[in-house]
# Entry
Amino acid sequence: MTEVLHELLRGSLDHCVKCTICETACPVSNVTPLFPGPKYAGPQAERYRVGDEPSVEWSVDYCSGCGICTQVCPQGVKIAEINALARHKLKQQKGVPLRDRIIARPTVLGRLGTPTAALANASLRSRPVRVVAERVLGVHRDAPVARFAGRTFRSWARRHSSPATGRRIVYFHGCGTQYYEPDVGEKTVAVLEHNGYQVEIPKQDCCGLPLQSNGLFDDARKYVLRLARALAPHARDGALIVGNATSCTLMLKREAREILGLADDPDLKLVSERTYDVCELLLELHDRGELKTDLQPVEEVVAYHAPCQQQGHGIGKPALELLALVPGLEVRELDARCCGIAGTYGIKREKYDIAMAAGADLFEQIGASQADLVACDSETCRWQIEHGARKPSAHPIELLHRAYGLPQPS
Amino acid sequence: MRPSLGYDVAVVGAGVAGLTAATRMAESGARVVVLAKGVGSTHLAAGTVDVLGYDPDRVSSPARSLPAFVAARPDHPYSLLGVDAITLALDWFAERIERGPQPGYRYVGDLERNYLLPTAVGAARPSALVPETMAEGALGGGRPICVVGVRVLREFHPTLCAANIARMGVAARGVEVKIDVDRPELNALGLARRFDDPVFRRDFAARLAPSLEGDERVGLPAVLGLRDPHAAWSDLQDRLGRPVFEIPTPPPSVPGMRLFDALRAALRAAGGRLVMGTRVMGAEREGARVTALRVDTAGRETTFGARCVVLATGGFASGGLALGSDWVVRETVLGLPLRGVPTAGSPRFGAEYFGEQPMARAGVAVEPSQRAEQTENVFVAGAALPGAEPWREGSGEGISLTSGHRAAELVLASDGLAAAA
# Structure
């Protein structure tokens, strides 16, 4: 299966006309010579990667997997996907460091950190601990790490019952919401309910994206298929699935099928067709005249950054359109491409500086925007923005929640 | 979910034609979405607006040559668009750049005379409207030229460029400046980012200054800043005390990226929506009307409902048209009827690469209103129009800009939108 898919992706490389548009957009190769760029590592080097023979080219390990190259390619070459497979092959050959196996499992970290949140948060912010963690584990001492909330989103969800409206929707909350930002989940549910949805929150686990981006394809497949099995019955009953973590929804929509070679799994296929990013869903409601627009003025200046993986959905920037509906809210679109973090990439000791340099344009734009807050759809990007630009960051849904005048989470 | 109904106009393509049409319609209050596979020709072309360069001899004044050019070619896009429309489009464009995100950056020129500017290999290229940062490079007299290369930019060869300029009778020589960077080579974009930095410019000017002689003007590859080119260019002129001009490079084209950034900003400012990295797969129709576009988004197809469509997908090079091994030419998005496709038995291609290529004149069959034949609400702009050979005529941006600008006006006045209003 993987081989067939690999051939399909490889087939796209013949469409490369070497126009260099991907090179103009790559956040990594523009700041470090360690990655020679998507065209070089992708369509060009791919010609030298033969079947089971060892990789001859190592630089692809420095690709952050943001996916921008594929998005901007006018010829339809699957550059990022080709590079993801090449990275996987490289990892199989060289072995995956313990660090990558740990940071790629947010559920394991979450289960460990949640009950001991006070201690875990203090440790993660203690210089000596971080210096040791950098030496022993290879997680950069300055890298942004989120704060455990000390409670899980599910503990709230178990107690919550959504008013029965008959318009069922399934909420896929992701690990960021579950362990670090349960507030965002509560607000997402409230906004959906405000718009007449009956929100169901089935038991769920990680989508496997961090494992995939760290080259651990077998483990990633297990996770994503387990999630697909949990969500598919609801989709089969006609419910849509909506998520607020744009990277994780992209994993369900496309990446698992294309990169992990799971295109034919019936559950995953159904789930991917029925999955929506929350802002995508709300904008579609608005396009049909069905979105509630009882939005109260929010007198604030907000900058908006669309994460790379959000752009991978191919739906434009729905958050930007939604925020424009809020009276009084002044939204400044940031057009710098990437914050640099790319999930787990920017927390690694050898990649932290690259990630910070990749995000420098964005941080500078945020500073110049004079915004009070940076809206951004992806949690790891928000954490990187808060770290790099020293400005608070929020999911766009939090601003909508505020404008709707809905009660604050307890 | 049911298709959305929300858009007045869906524009397919984010090159000069698509962005111009979309921005102008959005500025008039239409709800516009632009759907594009990737960025368009902007990142590859020189960033100048070439209106008419050859007929077939080099044109010195497009305004003087256009009437006869159009009269001799009733099938050419300019015959359809009309010469007056070109002036309107150029003025509109220059204003958008001036209001754009690069402070002080502007285009100069008009249809009265072409600038004759050197290319990266030192050939002369006629352009009507050019970035201010290029204008001092006009050939045909003036001060001698010192073409300056930067060692890490391997696709720009100053001595080759200068030798060819000298062959045209303009005194020119090439020099190379070495700069300290963290890698053996840099492309034009990487270099442009560095020129945005005043400290880098100061250092660069200090290294270059001793090599300059007499009253030479300085020709540099077009890398003088992406975000703030006006400041970078002015700063270098001040530091060197002589005119400085940019010479377009092979791709990636920094002036083209500035142009794209400016048009994108204008579109956003007018409330237009831009969806990149997606592909239009086909359409839903009611009779001859397109009611929605089917778009390949992650996980599934999404439909974008629209009252009118502007097709700005380009020609063969951008994939708007495709020629099969069966010699059948197709318009790839909506399967629209074509015009100008060489008939069986007549020559399809010429032997000379830059010579006459009949196949290149193929395009979507349109009425004078730029409306595609057999449709009620699909309008066509840019290289998808039939009848031109832009690289021979030096007319690419002129056609794209004018047809995009005019399409906007026609769509806004069309039944499709009028009925909706």
